Automatic annotation (TrEMBL):
CC terms in the record's Gene Ontology section: transcription factor TFIID complex
Domain named Peptidase M1 membrane alanine aminopeptidase: residues: 300-535
Species name: Syphacia muris
Record-linked InterPro entries: Aminopeptidase_N-like_N_sf, ARM-type_fold, Ig-like_TAF2, Peptidase_M1_dom, Peptidase_M4/M1_CTD_sf, TAF2, TPR_TAF2_C
Protein name: Transcription initiation factor TFIID subunit 2
Family to which this protein belongs: Belongs to the TAF2 family.
Domain Transcription initiation factor TFIID subunit 2 TPR repeats: 661-1019
GO molecular function, one term: chromatin binding
UniProt keyword Cell inner membrane present: no
GO process annotations (BP): transcription initiation at RNA polymerase II promoter
Transcription initiation factor TFIID subunit 2 Ig-like domain residues: 540-659
Length: 1072
């Protein structure tokens, strides 16, 4: 914190920079500014000499700042290691660092120098050192104020600081994308853009600034580029001017809304602008050959604007909004003030159906982040969760409005599962850790209180948890009071954003956790101390084991709820209200119970009595009445089913013990999609002919949500596989598929594809993708796939006809490849003799389909290479199951730089799984190559996503203390030292370093690995080990984009990485 104090006694306010007043600041005004003794008022940024061959550009910046306290003799700014100061460049390069146009003495002091110091290889020691050094660091660039400027500093006059830097071959915050043809000529499509290699900001990597979310100022950005290039930056374009020789053009941008450096970005490249026809404030920028895709993808953004402006009662905060689609981006969206940098993977063609929903949700979140995150900004990293959570919450309301309540609830449940799974594996997530909290309060191997030490995996799930907490707060306050709070924050921000001449009031445009809940209290009159303590300043989720019985004499339900907070990581002991919904014969009744202990019992009054009737009309919670067959239920009990916390108002895991017939009733008659999905998950554990028929009925019911029908297909396969009886006749799913999609004259032949964009037809389309996959999961009593199913799937691939269809069938064909791969089973006793020549006829035909699909996708790509990616995974599955020898060379071929990025990620995912299971010799060499790729690859998307894969499927073999032929002690030491060297290298990207810290913790714990020291460990080593299946990890990192978006099973964690698309390859030719 900066030292509290006011400006010099009685000094009149100073007028500067077009009449801005600098004087008269109280301690309250400056209390939000961390590690600073001055305030930046405005900043000029001039970018020039962009060189794609050298991957470099020059930056000159001039900061207008005013000292907060007199007698300051040095200025501290943030600067990254890729921005070279004049004294770090070869002599004659030019450049100065000045204060009021006087040359100043300056030096760089990197806080990460502590990493290079020799210390024991222990996360316990390193984490503590990193946090302490970073908290003490006020800036990497120290500028000594010249003596001639002392009077201005003491009188708190405006000081102008000018700095020349050159960014050379950056690895942080900036990414160049360029290819060169003959004679080293730059080809069309080259571009450079800002990104985040840190969880909050990387602006310091290319620009000397105050890189903190609370340091707001006004901006002017000028970018000089070659005349063939376009420059896009935060702010409003004032004008552009050509040089005298017409070879260069300078773009002038101005941002008069006080904004922090965190939200400043720019893009330069060969772009084609496209102004939205319905809203001229929106401009999209497309790379060569992608203009048609950009036009189609962004055609509905105006509706997103209208939705948020109406919802928030606030106009879009910036004068214009620019969407730039770039290649090789590590994240799908990167939001800056008035500018969103998007990955080209979010683009979709007008003939593609599967990507529409996911892309529109991403575009909506990008607009939401302009309101919360760019316009209203966080006061500190510890409050950053609030902005991310609010933007996710309002995006959820957009989903509910345009895609339906069922889809919205499904997304919420998937987010809840992701949070609970992460906390169960890693530990408690705390939204707002306190500064005075001891580091080991929650036993993390890193310190989440600093953005440079916080794990990106932790941060990603933290923002998801924040979304759930904001949703919980909305339900607790009520919709109208909650939106009054939001509108109050926006109105205050709007009020002070217009006062460019009063920088002391700009602090009101930032929101902290404390100020947000203070506004909640002031606007609604509600105090929330328990809520804050339990969900904001505390971590974990609740875990309920629920049992109940019906007492006929008392006509009461005797409910018992147990909690075991110590039974797993990440659990808390919940105290508070819980909603219970009981569906009885006479209607649905809501009860609210209070939980005060870990073991509580409750009596719920029943409003119905058991009736010995076979059928009866039952009123449901939706208001409709259905005639329900009561033959299977307990005649003495009026209870049809019970649900706990049906609206997801808590962060919880719930296991309810109730009879199977009640789960069947819930699936058939409950209209809540979450209840139906929960019923399916339970019913597949209790196989019986009746359960099988109930699930099959759910698949056939057209009124059910399509995700329920798709999930029911997989549940049906699971139930059939568990039944001991021998199956007679064709599988029911096969018969159903022929009925829905087969020709009338020849049901074994599929109808020609004719996809129609209506609700009913789209649901049938997604079910058409799920049914073959579910069929492929069917097994005989001898654990082999049905021959009839395999032949049918091969026939579907062979006879697929898309000639008369106006839409592409790429994703459908990819689903058939996945379905055929699902029929594979392990080979018995084949040993090391596996080879293509030893395959039986069925496996030969299967392999031929996979290789044909992969080869054809290489020659004539499908949209997003979706077919080739699934074929590559299928070939790896054949290797894992013993049909083919495990051969990493195949995957090395597709993982090489220059290949299509999602295809590279798919190949790398196969190699990671190979190392994770350590099934072949040479795992050490594969792991070494993967680490090299993770550190040195030119694409940030590959570096970060591969690191995520390694954390999802760690190479535990290398941490084993049982050394043998495949794992030698020297190899284990070499890998450990390599990991540690990356972690302690000063220039390692912050995000990559923290991924490797997570990986180190999974492998070796917080202490020193035993094989790196001779003495016994003095402290117990904490280590987490968990194993994930190959399919789980692929779903976790979403390597296939939207390929499984519509067939996602509820228990799958929400994807957190995104795929990339090569703009040169993503053209209309893919769809012919």
């Amino acid at each position: 914190m900066c030292t509290d104090g006011s400006s010099g006694g009685g000094a009149p306010p100073v007028i500067f920079a077009e009449g801005v007043s600098a004087g008269g600041e109280s301690s309250q005004d400056t209390s939000v500014f961390l590690n600073c003794n001055f305030r930046v008022l405005s900043q000029l940024v001039y970018i020039s000499n962009i060189n794609f061959h050298e991957r470099s550009f020059s930056v000159y910046t001039e900061l207008s700042l005013v000292p907060i306290h007199p007698e300051q003799r040095e200025l501290l700014l943030n600067i990254g290691c890729d921005a070279y100061l004049p004294n770090e460049l070869p002599e004659g390069s030019g450049g100065r660092v000045t204060v009021n146009d006087e040359d100043a003495v300056y030096l760089r002091r990197d806080p990460f120098h502590v990493l290079g110091q020799k210390c024991e290889q222990s996360l316990r020691v390193l984490s503590s050192q990193m946090y302490e050094v970073l908290e003490d660091s006020e800036g990497e660039l120290r500028i000594i104020v010249p003596e001639s400027c002392y009077d201005s500093m003491d009188e708190q006059m405006v000081i102008k600081v000018g700095i020349d830097v050159k960014v050379i071959n950056p690895r942080h915050g900036i990414h160049f994308v360029a290819s060169f043809g003959k004679d080293n000529v730059l080809e069309k499509g080259a571009h450079v853009y800002t990104m985040r290699s840190n969880v909050i900001s990387s602006t310091r990597s290319w620009l000397p600034c105050m890189d903190a979310p609370d340091q707001l100022c006004l901006w002017r950005i000028e970018i000089t580029v070659d005349a063939s290039l376009i420059a896009i930056a935060s702010g409003e374009l004032l004008h552009s001017e050509y040089s005298l020789d017409m070879r260069e053009v300078t773009y002038h941008y101005q941002l008069l809304i006080p904004t922090s450096a965190v939200n400043i970005g720019f893009v330069v490249g060969h772009f084609t602008p496209y102004v939205h026809p319905e809203m001229s404030e929106i401009t999209a920028f497309a790379l060569p050959s992608l203009t048609s895709l950009v036009k189609h993808t962004t055609s509905t953004v105006d509706r997103v604007f209208e939705f948020f402006e109406e919802l928030l009662s606030c106009r879009f905060p910036f004068p214009s909004y620019k969407q730039v689609f770039v290649d090789q981006a590590a994240e799908a969206i990167n939001s800056f003030s008035g500018l969103t940098v998007l990955s080209v993977t979010v683009l979709y063609h007008k003939k593609i159906l599967d990507c529409v929903q996911e892309t529109r949700q991403l575009l909506a979140r990008a607009v939401a982040e302009q309101f919360f995150g760019c316009y209203v900004s966080a006061a500190h990293w510890l409050d950053f969760w609030l902005m991310k959570s609010l933007s996710k919450f309002f995006t959820g309301l957009f989903i509910e409005r345009y895609f339906g309540t069922a889809e919205y609830l499904f997304q919420v449940m998937r987010t809840l599962n992701a949070v609970c799974n992460y906390e169960s594996k890693w530990g408690m997530l705390v939204l707002r850790p306190l500064k005075n909290d001891p580091k080991n309060k929650f036993e993390w191997h890193f310190d989440p209180r600093n953005p440079f030490t916080c794990s990106p995996l932790y941060a990603n799930v933290l923002f998801k948890k924040g979304h759930l907490i904001i949703r919980m707060l909305n339900k607790r306050l009520g919709k109208e009071p909650f939106f009054q709070v939001v509108q109050k924050i926006l109105s205050v921000t709007t009020q002070f954003s217009q006062k460019q001449t009063e920088p002391k009031n700009w602090q009101h445009m930032t929101v902290s956790t404390e100020s947000f809940f203070r506004t909640v209290s002031n606007v609604t009159g509600q105090e929330l101390p328990t809520f804050l303590e339990q969900w904001i300043y505390g971590g974990g989720h609740a875990n309920f084991e629920v049992e109940y019985s019906f007492n006929r004499k008392r006509n009461m339900i005797e409910l018992e709820i147990k909690q075991d907070p110590k039974g797993s990581l990440g659990r808390q002991s919940y105290v508070g209200p819980v909603t219970v919904v009981v569906q009885e014969l006479d209607g649905s009744f809501v009860h609210t119970i209070q939980i005060d202990t870990d073991h509580s019992t409750h009596d719920l009054q029943c409003h119905s009595k058991g009736r010995r009737q076979k059928k009866k009309k039952i009123p449901l919670s939706t208001g409709e009445e259905l005639e329900i067959d009561l033959t299977n239920m307990d005649l003495d009990s009026p209870v049809l089913w019970v649900r706990i916390d049906p609206d997801l108002l808590l962060l919880r895991e719930i296991n309810i013990h109730q009879p199977v017939y009640q789960w069947e009733y819930m699936l058939k008659y409950e209209r809540d999609v979450l209840a139906q999905l929960q019923a399916l998950e339970i019913l597949e554990r209790f196989p019986s002919p009746h359960v099988r028929s109930v699930i099959l009925e759910a698949i056939e019911t057209e009124s059910f949500f399509y995700r329920v029908r798709c999930r029911a297909a997989f549940a049906h396969s699971e139930v059939v596989n568990k039944l001991s009886e021998i199956w007679l006749g064709p599988p029911a799913l096969l018969t159903l598929f022929k009925k829905l999609y087969g020709c009338k004259s020849a049901p074994h032949m599929p109808k020609p594809n004719n996809f129609v964009v209506t609700t009913v037809n789209l649901e049938l389309y997604f079910l058409m993708q799920a049914l073959p996959h579910a069929m492929g999961c069917l097994r005989t009593s001898s654990n082999t796939a049905f021959t009839e199913v395999r032949e049918f799937l091969l026939g579907l691939i062979l006879y697929n006809d898309n000639s008369v269809n106006r839409y592409s069938d790429d994703h459908y064909r990819a689903s058939l490849i996945r379905a055929l791969a699902a029929t594979l089973v392990p080979v018995d006793n084949l040993g090391d003799n596996a080879s293509p020549d030893s395959l039986n006829l069925d496996m030969e035909r299967t392999l031929a389909e996979f290789t044909h699909a992969l080869n054809m996708d290489t020659l004539k790509p499908s949209f997003g290479y979706i077919i080739g990616i699934n074929a590559l995974r299928a070939i790896y599955q054949m290797q894992v199951l013993g049909h083919l020898p495990l051969d990493p060379k195949v995957f090395y071929l597709f993982a090489q730089p220059g290949n299509y990025t999602p295809l590279r990620l798919a190949a790398l995912g196969c190699l990671v799984d190979m190392v994770h299971n350590c099934k072949i010799s040479g795992c050490f060499e594969i792991l070494s190559n993967l680490l090299d790729t993770c550190v040195n690859d030119v694409e940030p998307a590959v570096r970060y996503h591969l690191a995520t894969l390694l954390c999802s499927e760690p190479p535990f073999f290398i941490a084993s203390q049982e050394f043998h032929d495949q794992v030698r002690e020297s190899d284990a030491i070499a890998v450990a030292q390599r990991l540690w060297s990356v972690i302690t290298e000063e220039k390692t990207e912050s995000q990559l370093r923290n991924y490797f810290i997570d990986l180190w913790f999974l492998l070796y714990g917080t202490g020193v690995p035993s094989f790196l020291k001779s003495e016994a460990p003095s402290q117990p080593v904490t280590r987490r080990e968990f194993r994930a299946s190959f399919n789980d990890v692929l779903n976790t990192v979403e390597m296939l984009g939207s390929s499984s978006w519509h067939n996602t099973i509820l228990t799958t964690c929400e994807p957190n990485c995104n795929t990339e698309v090569n703009p040169a390859e993503m053209t209309d030719d893919m769809l012919q």
